Structures are given as C-alpha cells and as structure tokens.
Amino acid sequence: MKSQSRKINSRRKGKEGELEFARLLNDRFGPTANARRSQQFMGTAQSADITSNLPFHFEVKRCDKLMFRDWWSQLRSEATDKTGVLAFRWNNGPWIIAMDADDWCNVVRESDFFCTECATNTETNHGSKN
Fold first, then answer.
1. Which of 19, 38, 107, 111 sits CB 3.0–4.6 Å from 51 for a disulfide?
2. CATH number for the domain that contains residue 49
3. pLDDT in tens, 46-105
4. Residue 128: is it exposed, middle or buried by C-beta count within 10 angstroms (0-12/13-18/19+)?
5. Long-range contacts of range 96-101, CB-CB < 8 Å, 24 or more positions apart?
6. What is the pTM for the complete model shown?
7. Distance between CA 109 and CA 123 in Å, rounded?
C-alpha cells in the first residue's frame, strides 16, 4: 500500500511541477509562449511535458532525489523535433535549466546579445558549424 501511495504522490508532484513550470514560462514570456501541460493533449511516449510556442522540447522534473543521468537520457531520446531542455527543481528550490552546450551556444548566438561582429569573429576563429 505504501508504494502505491508513493506512486500517486509522485504523479501528483510531477503534474504540479509541470503546471508550475508552464506558469513560469507564461509569466516570463507572456501569452505568446502559450505554455501548457502537454500530457493531456498528446499523451504519447515522445511528447514533451510542456507544449509551447518556444522552440524547445521541455522535460520537467520536480522531486527530491536528483536522477540527472536518467532524466537526461529520457530527454535525449524524446527530443527529436526541437532543442531539448531539462527543467528541474527540488522542494523549495529554484528551477534549474540544463541543456546541451552546443544547443545553448546556438540560443545565445540567435539572441539579441550576440551581435553580427561577434558572429563573424567566432566563425573566423573557430569555424562555423553547419
């Protein structure tokens, strides 16, 4: 009976974490983000935890035990159409985002922060990635 209770609590906690993270995205990016829990809409094994207009596949975890390798493996196998982002937090902790370093560099490169001159210097010094 105790393991059944933990399973239900884990699911509830996961659902609450997904809703909380979707609210965070909508608060930070406004209505254009259109972030919502996707399980109720898609429900497939490959579906992201959060569906949004952002160019990311979100895997959301909220728990006390950090199982980063398992979560990362899940994200890598599921994020096939968008850039994978792992969002996680423990109880009373901040949301933390993890993503592949090359993906993060691409996000920075496409942001307003990264100027044309910087892009030219980077391609000249390190070669461009196609």
1. 38
2. 3.40.1350.10
3. 689 999 999 999 999 998 888 999 999 999 999 988 999 999 999 889 999 999 999 999
4. exposed
5. 98/68, 98/72
6. 0.77
7. 11
Count other C-beta atoms under 10 Å from residue 57's C-beta.
Answer: 23
Report residue 69 as tokens: 């390798």
| Domain total of the chain | 2
**Residues 15, 43 within the same domain:** yes
pLDDT digits 0-9 by tens, 8-49: 687 888 899 999 999 999 999 999 999 999 865 555 556 899
- CA gap 27, 87 in Å, rounded: 16
Q: Are residues 79 and 126 in the same domain?
A: no
